[in-house]
Write a structure and sequence with these properties.
With 301 residues, the chain is an alpha/beta fold. It is built from 10 helices and 14 strands. Bound molecules: adenosine-5'-triphosphate. Belongs to the ABC transporter superfamily.
């Protein structure tokens, strides 16, 4: 059974549509939710947690409706927010025990689970020091610990590698993978870096401007996702618009346009579109198949 399901989920703010008829099914495992900044990742997480109301459409977690079953969902779900939200003057132990109690654990169980969880995230030695003196990586681990302490069935991790250096990033990614491998807790993890999610996810969901670009298993993704890079002499915006109108999922990457190569007809569509707009074609070439290509992250991983 899918653990997270959305159907035609839409969230409109006055100036922007953050989610646009998003339909996804998430099975147990590590699921990467990828999109550029502003793609709608945090909005989706907030709706799933009942912190924000959808404009239309449906969302369910663990089979429960997010609009009517909020309290039941929150008992069974952990959440690691994106931004720093930790009190600086208490220790990791005090804070995580408090969060465990908030989730309904009795005092003894809360202390026991806190010690176990802080050990798991690698903060055991420093657990009595005030959080204010922690490094960014340590703070991210405290946020992760409070999301896990009540032994949830799913955790939603919003940009957990934000602000970390390459070593800290690798450690955090390994930790996230183990949440599912060691404890069977399903993980929905967001990032704007596709390459890092490719490494740890069983399944990847890509969204762009609130729309679903792709949802498939990571192995399927890396095997089949081939892209064509298109470069034109002028008017790239017009060409991109026309390619989209022709049904292609164009993603802009600086002066390039990257188009999934669904089949050979893509070449014909690009050639005809460029001719119609009346500009020259500098480049039309097939790219390697890393999911990072979707948002042009080459060289950043
Ligand atoms: N409370 C709000 N009021 C108005 N617009 C909002 C609000 N929250 C988000 N948005 C807009 O909705 C869009 C999606 O934002 P969201 O935070 O979900 O993106 P994201 O993929 O999580 O990106 P980031 O990694 O930058 O947080 C953005 O254009 C954002 O400006």
């Amino acid at each position: 059974m899918p653990v997270i399901q959305t159907e035609e989920l839409t969230k409109r703010f006055p100036a922007v549509t953050a989610l646009d008829r998003l339909t996804i099914d998430v099975e147990p495992g590590v699921v990467g939710l990828v999109g550029a900044n502003g793609a709608g990742k945090s909005t989706l997480i907030k709706i799933l947690l009942g912190l924000s109301e959808a404009t239309s459409g449906q969302a369910r977690m663990l089979g429960l409706d997010v609009t009517t079953d909020g309290p039941k969902i929150r008992e069974r779900v952990g959440y690691m927010p994106e931004h720093d939200c930790l009190p600086g003057d208490v220790s990791a132990t005090e804070f995580v025990v408090h969060m465990a109690r908030m989730s309904g654990l009795p005092a003894d169980a809360a202390r026991e689970r806190t010690a176990d969880t802080l050990r798991h995230v690698g903060l055991y030695e420093e657990r009595y020091r005030p959080i204010g003196g922690y490094s960014t990586g340590m703070k991210q681990r405290v946020k992760l610990a409070q999301a896990l302490v009540h032994d949830p069935e799913i955790v939603l991790l919003d940009e957990p590698t934000n602000g970390l250096d390459p070593v800290g990033r690798d450690d955090m990614l390994a930790l996230i993978r183990r949440i599912y491998t060691d404890f069977g807790i399903t993980v929905l993890v967001t990032s704007h870096l596709l390459g890092e999610l490719e490494r740890i996810s069983d399944h990847v969901v890509v969204i762009d401007a609130g729309r679903l670009l792709r949802s498939s298993s990571t192995s399927e993704f890396t095997r089949t996702s081939q892209f064509v890079a298109v470069e034109v002499t002028a008017e790239p915006d017009t060409v991109a618009g026309q390619l989209k109108a022709a049904g292609l999922d164009v993603v802009r990457d600086g002066h390039l346009m990257v188009v999934p190569l669904e089949d050979e007809s893509v070449y014909d569509i690009v050639r005809d579109t460029v001719a119609q707009v009346g500009v020259g074609l500098i480049r039309l070439e097939q790219r390697r198949h890393h999911i990072a290509e979707v948002f042009g992250e080459r060289g950043s991983q």
